[in-house]
Amino acid sequence: MMNIEYLNDWAVEVKDIDLSESDETTAHKIADLVLSQMVVVIRNQNLTPEQQLRFCNFIGEYQSTNTDRAKDISLIDGVLRVTGQKNNRGEEGLFGHTSALDWHANQASNYQRMPLIWLYGKEGTKGSITSWINNIESYNSLSEDIKEQIKDTKITLGYKVDSYSPSKFFKEHHAKDRPFKLVHTNDAGKTGLYFPFLQVFGGLSEELFEKLKSHILQFQFRYDHHWQDGDIVLSEQWLSIHKRHYFKNMEDRVLHRIAFDYSKLKWIIFLYQN
C-alpha cells in the first residue's frame, strides 16, 4: 500500500518511494491518483531522462519532442528542458525567462493534447514556486444556478504572446474552429471546469467570464508547490491549470517536462474496447 499524505484538501504526496525501481502496478496507482486528485507530488528522486520516460511509459504514450522546434531543447525524445540555462549549443530551454508564467493549461486549444504532465526538479529549483488550481473543486462549489447556466457552454481557445508568457516558442493563434465544453468530465468520471481563462478567446459573456475567474482563483482551490531538487509533480491537464511564479535564478533552475497520456491503464483499455 502506498504511503499518501494530503498537502491540502485535495493535492497529495506519495512518500517513501523510489521511482527508479517502480513497476507498472505502482505507476498505474499513481496515475489513478493524478486523475482523481489533479496534483500528485513525489519527493527525493534521482532519475535519468531514460528512467523518467520508463515510468511514464508504464502509464501511456509520451508526446514526441523530435520536431524542428523542440528537439534542440530536449534531452532525449519526449523530455524537454524547462530552464534559462543554456545547453552546449547555446540554447535556453523552454520558458527560460525569469518572469512569471501565468495561469494556463498546456496546449489548451489542441483536441489531441496530452492529459498528463510530468515535471521533475533536476537542479537549482529551491525558492521557485509553481501553483495549481483544481477545477473539480471549484466547479463543485458553484451554485446550482451557475452550473445550470454553463452546462452546455462551449469556449474557444488560443494563444497570444504575452497573454501568460513572453515566450516566442509558440505561435500566436485563435482556434475558432475547435470549441471545447466548459464543463468537462474526464475518463475517471471527474467533472469540473475546463477554464484556462487567459487562453479563452470566446464563448462567454464578460460578466460570466469574470465571475468564473474570480471564483476559481479563491485560495481553497489552489496548491502552491515550493520546489526542492528531486521533486516530481504530476498533474492532470483538463481539470487543472497551473502558474509558475517569478524566479530570478532561471539560469540555474532546471526542470524536465514530459507530456503523456494514460492509454496503458488497464481500466482505460477496458473502457474503450467494450
List the helices and strands and how they pair.
Elements: E1 3-6, E2 12-15, H1 24-37, E3 39-42, H2 49-59, E4 74-76, E5 79-83, E6 101-104, E7 116-123, E8 129-134, H3 135-140, H4 144-150, E9 154-159, E10 173-181, E11 183-185, E12 191-193, E13 200-202, H5 206-216, E14 222-226, E15 232-236, E16 240-244, E17 254-260, H6 266-273
Parallel strand pairs: 2-3
Antiparallel strand pairs: 1-2, 3-15, 4-5, 5-17, 6-16, 7-15, 7-17, 8-14, 8-16, 9-10, 9-13, 11-12
Helix pairs in contact: 1-2
Sheet having the most strands: 8 strands, mixed
Oligomeric state: single chain
Task: State the strand order across the main sheet.
Answer: 1-2-3-15-7-17-5-4
The average pLDDT is 89
CATH topology: Double-stranded beta-helix
Q: Choose one word for the global shape.
A: globular
The CATH class name reads: Alpha Beta
Rounded to an integer in angstroms, the radius of gyration calculated over CA atoms is: 18 Å
Would you list the SSEs in sequence order as H and E?
EEHEHEEEEEHHEEEEEHEEEEH
Structural class: alpha+beta
Which superfamily, in CATH terms, is the homologous superfamily?
Clavaminate synthase-like
DSSP summary: helix tally? 6
Q: Could you tell me how far the N terminus lies from the C terminus, measured between alpha carbons in angstroms? A: 29 Å
Parts with pLDDT < 50 across at least 5 consecutive residues: 163-167
Helix content: 10-25%
Number of domains: 1
Number of strands: 17
Overall CATH architecture: 4-Layer Sandwich
Strand content: 25-35%
